[in-house]
Amino acid sequence: MMEFINGMPANLIPGHWVKSRQSEAQGMCVEAIPLPHGGVALRNSTDPNGPALVFTEGEMSAFLDGAKNGEFDPLVGAN
Hints:
Layout: E1 18-19, E2 30-34, E3 40-44, E4 53-55, H1 57-68
Antiparallel strand pairs: 1-2, 2-3, 3-4
């Protein structure tokens, strides 16, 4: 059974990576993939062979809740 850890090459994670339809025309976006035994991995779409960040379901849930509530808006210049 494969272990998925932070920093592993993203291209070693099997499956279909997904990115937002709002992605820039050049394809610059964050891509996500569900992991076989729970959790989610993220990668930079401009570096698909680069490192993956691996998160538990709880971590992703907390992040998405914060994003929905606007907690990260200042990071991208939105107020």
